[in-house]
Structure formats: structure tokens, C-alpha cells
Amino acid sequence: MGAGFPDSEYKGRLKAAQTRMADAGLGAILLTTEPDIRYFTGFLTRFWESPSRPWFLVVPANGDPVAVIPSIGAALMSKTWISDIRTWSAPEPADDGVTLLATTLRELVTDGKVGVPSGPESHLRMPLTDFERVKSAAGLTFTDDRGIVATLRMVKSPAEIDKIAAICAVAGRAFARVGEIAREGVPLSTVFRDFQRLLLDEGADWVPYLAGGAGQGGYGDVISPASDTALAPGDVLMLDTGAVLDGYFCDFDRNFAVTRASQTARDAHARLIEATQAGLDVARVGARASDLWRAMADIVGGGESAGRLGHGLGMQLTEGLSLTARDHTILHEGMVITLEPGIETGKGKLMVHEENIVIRADGPRLLSPLAGPDIPVI
Amino acid sequence: MGAGFPDSEYKGRLKAAQTRMADAGLGAILLTTEPDIRYFTGFLTRFWESPSRPWFLVVPANGDPVAVIPSIGAALMSKTWISDIRTWSAPEPADDGVTLLATTLRELVTDGKVGVPSGPESHLRMPLTDFERVKSAAGLTFTDDRGIVATLRMVKSPAEIDKIAAICAVAGRAFARVGEIAREGVPLSTVFRDFQRLLLDEGADWVPYLAGGAGQGGYGDVISPASDTALAPGDVLMLDTGAVLDGYFCDFDRNFAVTRASQTARDAHARLIEATQAGLDVARVGARASDLWRAMADIVGGGESAGRLGHGLGMQLTEGLSLTARDHTILHEGMVITLEPGIETGKGKLMVHEENIVIRADGPRLLSPLAGPDIPVI
User: Fold this and answer.
1) Considering only CA atoms, which of B24, B288, B200 is closest in space to residue B16?
2) Which residue among A87, A157, A272, B272 is the one 20 to 30 A from A14 at the CA level?
3) Which residues in chain B have Cβ-Cβ distances shorter than 8 Å to A311?
């Protein structure tokens, strides 16, 4: 499949940003992270795994974005719709793009401040020392971007939703094959490796995220790497993946009972699906993130301590809103979110279920294949 | 395999850092990124893929590090040697660990400044707005960490070298099987998927990085995602992987000729191996990074424009020194680096070869299986 979108998609994103920038009095927005730069350019590469070089995109108040990047990225960036590409030979610690970026900002910003994403989930992907150099060399005023980029990214276009739906289908097919790789006696670490192989086999480009757990009546946490402990009869096995296709993520999990399902596992799984359904029932345009949290928390219990029961999804594994008691973000058509209820099944043990949905005018549409109440036995 | 190291490894790292902190007058070092926090704790999880929560580790001038992290990470952090673990329910945009971190810093820093990694390859993994809040709430002076953490990480311990050697062996076995998955007529995107499956099959925990290219007499660049174009007779196929085992990377590539090897490909490959050998010949304790660059650049040509011909390697795909004309870092025993000569094979076309080595007192030791001068035909 060809990555990226038609130029019109990026031009629409640019126009939407520039309209908000005008209202906020921003002369430009400076972007430094992979998803933010890709959002406006379509620049897709795994090379971001290397921390050695900073990358910059300047979104001016008027006109097209300007890429200020290491020369090693020029060939790939020139395949995008971006025409103004300025490069330097990186890494060059003495002046790693600092002068080139400052000069570019001075040229493009005639009025207003330079906005830099500074809010929740953001970070500045460049050395702090160099950022200070850029600020003084540019002689401009820097401020936050008023959350403009994060707000735009929260609502997905039909083309983006198609990409997320495609990777959800890939993961759905891989989960349907877990019985081929996981059974009593297989070490969890082997299950993790083989499940990643299944995801690739079903068409994922790569697998940035895989977590999970296994244990009697639940698992201890959901972020630990796999141990070499073999699956035992009665264990609950959970696999939670963030696989990628064309740069867009899925993020959902599945639970399985090994050899036999304990009553605890059966009850907890049915409860989790019930909570997911309750979340679906209120996942409507106009509802608040906290409303979905409440609907699910009322069923899985735990109150405030239930924590985050879902989140936005797209170019990153998690992005945008959080389904918590405190997040009152209003749901809009085109938002893609996860419903992720968790339930305590014993002391220090839990079970988590997760599905991916998109908010449509007429209600939610499932992107992941909704699991039934009965926990599958493998 | 069990991830991590004995506590003595981490205590040694802490002692080395605190000795340098005393000389630099630092009352603490504040860490926010995955490799820096893992370096002092052994905290290993793929959960960093989610940008929604900041994570902090405070390394005080005296005493053990203190983890200030989201409660979702408490169970896993408690499995490390870190005993002082302070948590909050994240994400909480109104106060996402800001107060807890500021309070912790005020308690631990009785004298001196707070050092934050701010130099080459570093970034601050937290929202800029929250960093400003922490600084004012802590009422302390913040500065860079004088490169202390990066400098320590540049020299690997025997235990770290063993882990890098293990993942290099995994990738070596996978490269030896490329003939099983790549041949004339197979789309490059399929080769990329299947090679990641081979890496997992041979024992990689996951595959954070895979790049490559294919074309007649070379490829256009080395960071693009795979196209669906089928391999053609006479193509040169290059696969470059950063796979991970126990949290440590390998980073080397291999070139293959599809069906038949063109004279251009044969000559370029032999030249690349010659350059690699020239780099090996000068890769001795006391040599400078720029000496290795010069030895290889003299053979592949291109002079300054030859760019970076290798780099440090370890907890990240690339870290530490760069083999460039400008980097005069002195090689020390225990440094793990890549030798990565590239050669122009035509207009806009190149070929790159890469090996991984460790600097020993008696000379370099290869961690990747050194390729021969003849490009293998598949």
C-alpha cells in the first residue's frame, strides 16, 4: 500500500492550522517531533529511532511549510508535497541546524510569536541548549502553540480513519490466530515474539508496541516485558498491541484462557465486555470523555482509582483525549478512541479489555472486531 | 532471558555519576527519557511508546535515585533495585507530576544546581510548560548536566557488551537466512515484513528499526519505508536493522545482489569491505573518531561530504560519538561503535555497509559477523 495522502489532505490541515494561528496571533509554529512533522508533510520514516539528529518544520502564518532537516532526509522529504527543503550536514554539534533554523524563522516570521507545542503529551525533540541558541539567534518571541496542532490531530479525516481501520483489521486477523502460537507450556516471551510475527504476516508494516501478561485469575500489570514463564492451565493470557500500517496505529487487546477458563476469568471478561458496551452506548457526538469513563467505571468499579479507561488513537499509540473522570473533552465526529475498561480480579491482579472505535454523526462505529462476553479458551 | 543486570551494575553507574556531579557542583540530575532512566534503574518497558505520561528519575548528589512516575509503572519499577518510588495518577494535565517532582527535588537538593541532559542527542521528555512549572515550584537553579550521563553511557561494561553481542548474533543468523525470503519478483515491502519475522524467529525481543533499499547499481536513500516494487534481476538489496534483546541494540546491514551481481555492485561492495577493514585497522584505544572516519573516507571518497561513517551504539540505535571529520572523541576500551562506510555508485545512488565492533585494550573485536568482499547473490 502506498503511504501518505493526496496533497489536498495536507493543504487542508495547513489551512485549518493557519486559520487558528491567525486568531492566536502566531507568526509561525515550530515542530520537532515525528507525528507533528508527518501530520503536515507526510514524511514517514523509522529513522526517528536515531536520536542523533534534530528535524524541524516551520509552519508559517501564510504560505507552505518549510522543512529544515539533516541532508540525509532530503531525498525522502522531496517525495512529499513540501517544496522548500533546507538542509545541513548533521550531526554537527557546533551548529546542528541552529543557524539555519533561526535564519529561516527570521525570514518567515514578519509578525507575531513562534508557537511551539508545549502542552500535554508534547515534548521538544531537540537539545535544550540548542533551543536556547535558536531563540536568541532568531530574536523572536517564543510561546506555546495554544494546543493548535494537538487539537487538529484529535479529529481524524475519512482518509485517516480508513488507515486506522485497515491496521485494526490486520490486528484482528492476528488475534484470531493466537491459538496457533499460544498454549499451555509455551513461555510468554515466545508468545510475544510469535504474535509479532503473526501481525507482520497479516500485513502490519511494523510493531512498535506489544504488551501483555499472563497469570492465574489475571495479571500483575500491563506494561512489563514478557517473562520466560510458561503458560499454565487456568492462566489468563492478555496481548495488547499497537501495530502500524502506513504510519497509523491500532491499539487493542484480547484475553484468552489457557486450557480452561476459571470462574474468575469468565466473570471478569463478561464484565469487561459489559463495560465496553456501556461505553459504546454513550459514545456519541456531544458526549464528554468523562461521560464514557463514568459509564464504564460504574460497571468495573474502582471509582476514581479506576484510572484511564481509554484514550485517543491515530498517528501515535495514544494521543488526544483521555477517558478519565477529569477529562471533559467533547466528542466530535471523526474522533478515534479506545474503550479500555480494567477490572481488579484479586490482590495486585487485574484484567483489561480494549476496543477501537470512531465517533460518527449517527453513533460509534467499531474499528476492531468487538469481542464477545465469553473469554476464548486456547 | 532475564532483562537487566545485577544491582552492582547500577550502583557502579550511580557512583560514577555522583563523583562527576560533585566535581561539577550538581545537587542532582533530573532524567526524563527512556534510555537515561533505564541506565540507572533497569526499568525496561515498551510503554514509552505512549506519549501521554511523563516519567522522572532524580539522581541526587548522595544516596540512591528516586523515581517519580505514573502509578501505572509502580509495579514494574518496584521490581528494579529502586526503593524510593513516588507515584501520581497520570495523565493529570492540571498537575502531571509537577508538584510531586518539585517537592522531591526540594527535598533531595540541599546544595548545588539541578542538571538536565541538554547536549547533543538529548531532549527533555515532558511538556515545556510543565518544565517551567517545575522550575519555579522547585525554586532551584537548573542547568545542563555537563554531559555526565552521555559520557558515562558511551563506555559499555562487560555485561552491556555481552547483551549487544547477543543481539548482533541474532541479527547475523537472520541475515544468513535472507535467501529464504528475498528473491527476484518479491516486493520490497514483503521482504521488510519477512525479515522482521526472521529477526523475531532468531530471538530478537522486538525490531525498533528496519530500513533499506533496492535498485539497479545501488539505492536512492537509506531511510525510506519499503515500496511495493518487486525485486528485479541485477538489483542491489540492502537491509539495515536495529533489533533489540534485553533492551540493547545491534545496528548493522547487509547487501545482496538479486539473481546476478552487476560489476558496479561487485566493485562497490568490495570497496566498502575494504573501507570497513581500514576503519578496523585504526580502531584502537587512543584513536579519535575522526581518525576512523578519515581511514574509511580515504577509500570510499567523497571527502567531507562523505558524512557520518559510523557511530556509537548501545541502549539506543545510535548514541555517543559520530565518525565524522569533526568529531575528535578519543576511543576508550569498552566503546561499542559501528563502522558504516557509504559509497556513491551513480547519480543519486549509493551503497552502504555496516558492522558493529567493541574497542578492547588489544584492539577491536567484531560483534557482527564481518562480511566478505564478494556481495552475496540471492
Assistant:
1) B24
2) A87
3) 52
Cβ–Cβ of B205/A189 closer than 8 Å?
A: yes
Domain boundaries, chain A: 7-153, 158-366
DSSP class per residue in B66-117: EEEEEGGGHHHHTTSS---EEEE-S--TTSSSHHHHHHHHHHH-SSSEEEE-
Contact between B317 and A50 using a beta-carbon 8 Å cutoff: yes
Chain A residues touching residue B91 (CB < 8 angstroms): 120-121, 308, 322, 324
Averaged confidence pLDDT in chain B = 96
Fold match between domain A7-153 and domain A158-366? no
- pLDDT given for residue B130 in this prediction: 98
- Separation between Cα atoms, residue B196 and residue B199, nearest integer Å: 5
By C-alpha distance, the chain B residue nearest A47 is B223
For residue B73, list chain A residues with Cβ-Cβ distance below 8 A. Answer: 223
pTM, entire model:
0.98
Across the interface, do A197 and B192 touch by the CB < 8 Å criterion?
A: no
What value does the mean pLDDT take over residues B330-346?
97
pLDDT category of residue B305 using cuts at 50, 70 and 90 = low
Given a cut of 60, whether residue B124 has pLDDT beyond it is yes
What stretches in chain A show pLDDT beneath 50?
A: 1-2
Domain range A7-153, its CATH number among 3.40.350.10, 3.30.1240.10, 3.40.50.150, 3.20.20.140: 3.40.350.10
Question: What ipTM goes with this model?
Answer: 0.97
Q: Which residues does chain A have within 8 Å of residue B222's beta carbon, measured at their own beta carbons?
A: 72
A201–B46 C-beta distance less than 8 A: no
